């Protein structure tokens, strides 16, 4: 039976960061005496200087570890310090680079990890996966474990750049095609899809897809986006892999990262990938496009800096990024002419 780890707590509220010590005190004995390593970035430090100064006053034994680059080497070096200097608890406060580095460092050092995102750009806030740079700056996904606690302050998230929140919307949309690819693999290989993991991923998608909120900076929408991304992360933990939230659309994104170094947010790239995957899967993409346009999330190749040649090349290389990942791409032969037609079709509807 597949084992999995649920967080000890999940808190999504307004103005909750200031109550961090109270929340942790309910989970850890003598929290005020714990030796804590606090991962963040210089940017987050300056944006939330008031909140962080209060935190420094409340925790008497806290060390700040600034992340400038989310590399595998950085995470392992941090884990080494954590282990040698006997830190008790790891807290990550920031975006994906900070949280992934802190998450992997805590996993290697076998310490509890609390995830406190400053934006909601992807499901990494709750997933058992850390995306870190390796050789030549290439991003690679490393298995680790789900955070032991997740605190999401709605007021802090409201300060996030609009594009990053839009990326979170895009990342959730990718569940639409990922779930199809997962079921397709099960049919072809006579495998079993974990029903609960499937349900969580599907629920994560539907929370947003059918919301009545029209403003993505609305408190309730932010709460729904947070719930959606957390459920996606937990779905992967229960499944024991990323299948509930990662299919052919993610292979496209991996190819953009590994071969073309496209700097657009991950969530935007997988959303564009999902629209294309819908065509491969012979499904309508109208519901996805209507949803993205409602929040002015532009995932057109032009907006993401993806030329026609890059679009075609990334899809032609997509399967090679994860050869063991079965998807719709395994069921037919892609051609450059076919992708050329799709590129212009997509440009016409986005």
Automatic annotation (TrEMBL):
Q: List the InterPro entries hit by this protein, alphabetically.
A: G1PDH, Glycerol_DH
Source organism, top-level taxon: Bacteria
Enumerate the residues binding glycerol: 123, 171, 250, 266
Please list the GO biological process terms of this entry: phospholipid biosynthetic process
What cofactor does this chain's UniProt record say it requires?
Answer: Zn(2+)
Residues where NAD(+) binds: 96-100, 118-121, 127
Keywords of this entry = Cytoplasm, Lipid biosynthesis, Lipid metabolism, Metal-binding, NAD, NADP, Oxidoreductase, Phospholipid biosynthesis, Phospholipid metabolism, Zinc
Note accompanying the cofactor annotation? Binds 1 zinc ion per subunit.
Tell me any Pfam family this protein matches: Fe-ADH_2
Q: Which GO terms describe its molecular function?
A: metal ion binding; oxidoreductase activity, acting on CH-OH group of donors
- The name of this protein is Glycerol-1-phosphate dehydrogenase [NAD(P)+]
